[in-house]
Each structure stands twice: as C-alpha cells, then as structure tokens.
Amino acid sequence: MENTTKSFGIVGSGLVGRLLAINLLQQGHSVTLFEAGSAKAELSAGLVAAGMLAPLSELETAESIIYDFGKKSIQLWPSILKQINAESALSFKGSLILAHTKDRADLIQFIDTLKSKVDDAQQIQLLDNAKLSELETDLSLHNQGYFVPNEGHVNAEQFMQASTDYLQANKQLKWFENTPKSQISPGVVSIKHDNELIKHQFDWVFDARGLGAKEDICDLRGVRGEVR
Length: 228
Fold this sequence. Notes:
The protein is an alpha/beta fold. The protein is built from five helices and 13 strands. It has a four-stranded parallel beta sheet, covered by helices on one side. Helix 1 packs across helix 5. The chain is elongated.
C-alpha cells in the first residue's frame, strides 16, 4: 500500500506558516518549520494583525473572488481554533460602519456600492442613535450608522500563543528557530549551523516568509490593509 504521508518544510512561522502547519499535521504529514526569530513570533506581522473577518465591510474595492474567500474563511476559523484549543479567540458580534457628519454622503455611497455588488449586502442594517448606543455606548454622539451582521475577528495575539503551544506539543513537528538566512530550493531548505550549511530535504517546501523574503525577491513590497 502506497504511503501517502509526506514531509513538508515551511520557511516562516507567521500566520500563513502556522495555518499551513496546522492543516498538514491534521492530515498526518510531518512538518518542519524554519523561523528567522523565535517561536513566539515577535517578528511576525501576523502578531499585530487586526484579524478582521469582514468580507462585506471590505468589499468596496475588492474583487468578488476576495469576498468569496472571506466567506469561506468565516466557515473555516471555528474548526481551526477548536483544534488548537483557542475558541475564545474568535468573536462574531458583527461590524459597525460609521462616518462623521461631514462624511455622511461618502458613507451612503459606500453602502450603495456594497449593495450593488452582492445580494448579501441587503442584510446591512441602518441604525439610529438609540440602536447604536445599545450596541456601543461610546458611539452615542453618532446619529446614524450601519450594522453588518455575521462578521467578526480573530484575536491575533491569542491565536499566535495557542498555535505555538499546539505546534510545539506535536511530535510530528520540528521547529528550527533563529534561522534568518534559510536558503530555499525545490525540495530543500538549507540553514547554517556552526558555519556549516546543513541541507534538509522534503517532499514539498513552502515559502511563507512574507516580507522576510525581500532579500530574494527584489520587487516584493508590503501592502497595508485599510478600510476607510
């Protein structure tokens, strides 16, 4: 019977690297992580991510495929967090979209754009001052706002800590920390140890370094996510 278990090398243990590792371990594969810093991910952009699960609220300038991915993400996160014992990191209380009085016209245009793109946007609710204050007392100075149900966020810091504990406890995972100069080639990750280049071979290698790959990809640039 053919052995379907594979070996995977993942360079970078930020948000993407961890999600890859969790998924592959769940499927029974062996995983090796290579991290430029420590397993606590102090250098990871994911540690300070907003963690928004808000496909409708972010739809204005996004393509429809991004919206579809966002809806799928909302379905996937509960099981991911349950697996690593971090269910409390997930919150689904909906999103509030507000604007100052002078920007009211822009807000209406924003909502109209969402409603013109997908039918799901019809669920967006216009709230008056009283209903806004019920949801958030600090918003009592706003006369109106819009509520988007079924959206939420993942607490990034909580996810990072829980995933660290989960991954370090898994016997199918090896974690090489403080390897900032990892070299990647098909099926091979090479790291320096005592001035010697050690090659680690895998069936598959993933580059999940994010901006950490800037030295190898000259035109790589970061894009700050923003909702206006």
